[in-house]
């Protein structure tokens, strides 16, 4: 028993710092220990913060592994005196994402804000959709400005007006002639009363959507906007172009137009169709739009002549909830015209192709 006590006393004596005396008060001993072993210096704090900033999310990384390491680095940083909050970690995560991902977060945030304002949800598109299994490239797709097709440029285009016109290989199928949507003029108070509107879906309107990485500044500012700007260049389409060409005449006639956020939705549900011949979305009900510009105009389908005239109340970004073939529910947003005279919503196949979806005709 005496031997064990002596051994314990010798062990405790070796743990005492050499520069402290057993007769020193407790406060004096604690001050000496703190000055010798304290690691909470500005240097260690700076190094801990730099380790967090250097831990970025790569393209092929796993979310669980990334956040486990990020939480461990935060614990180490807080242990040396830093104060790293959850918001700081999220900012680090968003800043490390590629620009092609940030557009989805901004639209998702705007969609959640709209859902909080209204309990009504958008109807599910009755047409079944199957997610494309092909991996899309992060770079913007190459689009020919002559024939609007993907995969080549105008100097290498076989279509009329292209650099290789008349040199197409055997079996080459020319594209459908663009510009079926031939005329668009602004309406005013002096519109003839006999003007008729068509309830048929327009088979015209050509656009290929390129939602590429043109988000300047979003890498350094991951804060989302509550209102989606439908005049943003990422929503490339015929609607902004031909309606903007009528801006002077519309303003001259005193027809107001404004940029508004839709906060309410009606109960009417219009059928939705996919059309391979059209590439511009036409939406019947205003409740589908999450961002909207009121601007009155009218269009005319070349196939129907004067009887094919239809009214356009405005345009913006419409949101649809689509059900994939596997049963998943996804949100699909696209630039669209507001055409209340139509009997249905019209979604173009190329708009789905640009976002990685393939139309599957029929019902499940």
UniProtKB/TrEMBL annotation:
InterPro entries: PolX-like_BBD. Residues 1-26 are annotated as: Disordered. It holds the Pfam family Pol_BBD. Residues 1-17 have a biased composition (Polar residues). Residues 273-357 form the Retrovirus-related Pol polyprotein from transposon TNT 1-94-like beta-barrel domain. This is Retrovirus-related Pol polyprotein from transposon TNT 1-94-like beta-barrel domain-containing protein. It comes from Collybiopsis confluens.
